[in-house]
Amino acid sequence: MFPSRFDLVVAQTVGEAVEAKAAAGEGGRFLAGGQSLIPMMKMRVAFPDTLIDINRIAGLDAIERDNGHLHVGALVRHADVVASGITFGAIASAAPWVADPLVRNRGTMCGSVAHCDPEGDWNSVLLATGADVVAQGPNGERSVPIADFIDGAFTSTLGEDELVVGLRIPVPSGRSGGAYLKLERKVGDYATVAVASHLELDDSGAISGAGLALTSVNPINTKVADAEAVLVGQQPSAELFAEAAELAAVAAEPRDDVRGTAAWKRQVVRTYTKRGLAAAAQQAEGS
Amino acid sequence: MEITVTINGSDHASDVEPRTLLVDHIRRTVGLTGTHVGCDTTSCGACTVLMDGKPVKACTVLAAQADGAEVTTVEGLKTADGLHPIQSAFTDDHGLQCGFCTPGMMLVGASFIAENPDPSDDEVRWAISGNLCRCTGYMNIVKAIQTAAARVAESSNGS
């Protein structure tokens, strides 16, 4: 298989890339790792007439901490996230579960976020950790909270002339922990169910911040805000996590498919929420 | 478009269509058919090559993206002294049945043991988890990769 014909623009700067995208209009797509886009083009599900390769743009491959945030550049591969010593919680937990080792060598975290595949892993992790997407267009840069960035399945609120240049993930200042529990049939498969958990504790050991998001059980990655609200202000306990898990199970709208029945997936949401929050609390208490 | 890819140490300059995939470029333009096309959908890893030292699925990389890159295919594994240790270990440990996945398995194995000279079963299984063997001959593939690692470690200790 091979893609339909397209023009390739190899951008050397973000400015060039954004300009080429604006010129190409709706028929233009950015190419970073290409691990979702190229297969879609080969299957003719996607057929951009202009592809703007951003892989040669200098300075987009950094993953660094600055000003209380973890910054992940547009060319940071999943494998770089796995190998990085400066990630934390749910980010570090999710990275080895994205795709397979070879795909992780090419695919980028930002590309995956921008792709907005409703069964993608990263957007749940970003919803749980409260991250921003940094987009650059002709008029400069703007930060968009991930919840506002995701618009639906495979659609974001990114402008036609904007490039995702990075992610800005808040690093908790106090004790914190997180987990990404993913059930998959085999390595590289989409999640049957996955749950991203994130907890922050204050000096008394009470939960001062909580994030919970679900993958593959709703039409899009879903933040469970009412479960988060129940957690904040409380001391971590199995009873509390069970209560949050019930709310997560209610928020999930799984469907029967080849991966399992809806009822079973809802039960996995319940179990993984309890386990994920317990793991996050344990990590936070030990941090 | 004009591209130059260094494949197994030799520069190959060609004029390719932007939509040409790296695996097709290697097989058809350059004529090295050791790199296989299996699923053609980024699942099986039969098309694995090393691009700037890292294993990637060549069915999911454009040839144009490899412009200026160093690519190693299975043909590039052999050394002046003969077979690469991963190749002799696959032979000795019967690490292949039909052989279709073998180029990918050996390239992933070679790259992996360079980073991890004494891998456990689990570590090897994790490393090859992006490559499928439809003969299900995983036991001996894992064993062969460990044998190769041990031989490389032994020869570097002895020298």
In short:
The complex is a heterodimer of chains A (287) and B (159). With 287 residues, chain A is α+β, with helices and mostly antiparallel strands. Chain A has helices spanning 14-24, 37-42, 78-83, 89-94, 101-106, 109-115, 122-129, 146-149, 225-231, 238-251, 262-286, and strands at residues 7-10, 28-31, 50-53, 63-66, 69-73, 132-137, 140-145, 150-152, 155-156, 163-170, 175-183, 193-201, 207-215, 222-223.
Give your account of this protein's structure:
- The complex is a heterodimer of chains A (287) and B (159).
- Chain A is of the alpha+beta class.
- Chain A folds into 3 domains: 7-53, 2-Layer Sandwich (Uridine Diphospho-n-acetylenolpyruvylglucosamine Reductase, domain 2); 63-170, Uridine Diphospho-n-acetylenolpyruvylglucosamine Reductase, domain 3; 175-286, CO dehydrogenase flavoprotein, C-terminal domain (Enolase-like, domain 1), CATH 3.30.390.
- Chain A has helices at 14-24, 37-42, 78-83, 89-94, 101-106, 109-115, 122-129, 146-149, 225-231, 238-251, 262-286; strands spanning 7-10, 28-31, 50-53, 63-66, 69-73, 132-137, 140-145, 150-152, 155-156, 163-170, 175-183, 193-201, 207-215, 222-223.
- The longest helix of chain A has 25 residues, at 262-286.
- Chain B has 159 residues and is α+β, with helices and mostly antiparallel strands.
- Chain B folds into 2 domains: 2-76, Ubiquitin-like (UB roll), CATH 3.10.20; 85-158, [2Fe-2S]-binding domain (DNA polymerase, domain 1, Orthogonal Bundle), CATH 1.10.150.120.
- In chain B, 36% of the residues lie in helices and 14% in strands.
- Chain B has helices at 22-29, 85-92, 102-115, 121-127, 138-158, and strands spanning 2-7, 10-15, 48-51, 54-57, 70-72.
- Chain B has a 5-stranded mixed sheet with strand order 2-1-5-3-4, with helices on both faces.
- In chain B, helix 2 packs across helix 3.
- Chains A and B meet through strand 1, helix 2 and helix 5 of A and strand 4 of B.
